[in-house]
Give the backbone structure.
Amino acid sequence: MPDAFIETAYFRDLTNRALLYLQAGYAVHFCGPAGTGKTALAMHIAELLGRPIVTLQGNDEYKPSDLVGGNSGMRRKKLLDNYVHSVWKAEESMDSVWYDGRITHACRNGHTFVYDDFTRSRPETNNVLLSVLQEKTLDLTALQKGETSLTVHPDFTVLFTSNPSEYAGVHVLQDALKDRVITIEIKNLDHESEVAIVAGRSGLPWREAARVVDIIRGLRENGVKKPSIRAAIMVATILATNGSKPVRSNPLFYQILIDVIGSEIFNENEGERNSVLAELIEKELDRYTPDDRK
């Protein structure tokens, strides 16, 4: 069973705004750095809508048929007619077998479609969404014989998530699709939200989770672009599992910080990385846990 969504004032505001836009018939797009809770927020909102949820993870290898569907084989039909006792009549036909892709299934049945990291799929693949979001129809002419278009169910709803375009493997969002969604940018979380998420996900007491978060945030303020909240959750979870405390006098805490944060900012010059990182961590430990050495 997935962890319950941890709601703070920050996330409550995002949730209310997103629900307002969705109820007005618009798709919502959460964009922000990794580890800011975009996917969890999108799934939380999808659950609040009370409809079945269809999910898809963006992938550079996808083709339009991976979203819409296609032909999965052939169906053979043979009819034997013996209406006249002395005469046999046989008719045989071959038809292609169509299967609905996830977007088609969601459009047909009015489900909530959560397209996670959708800009990892190529823009030409995501173009199938243009008519869905604007004209409320799904064009099937290029993929299926017979049914040429599908009218989108009135309960169909879309939630997108994406990382900034400077991330590796992320395509720039095309203007045509950008104009059809309402983008809500999620920047670095506020302190309350970050502590709530770390405490809730790790099981570490709130005060101790806050100490881990303070150190992580302090590193960011000192020019370390990473670590993300995921690093804070990892550190806190390891501490909770081991029963260790995030205190200055605990050498294990220091080593966990080095290992977890070092993994996020890894580069080829590992020795230099560890040296600079160790110095910054020492500084943050002195700042947030000054009395633990006494």
Notes: The chain has twelve helices and nine strands. The radius of gyration is 26 Å. The CA atoms of residues 204 and 240 lie 5 Å apart.
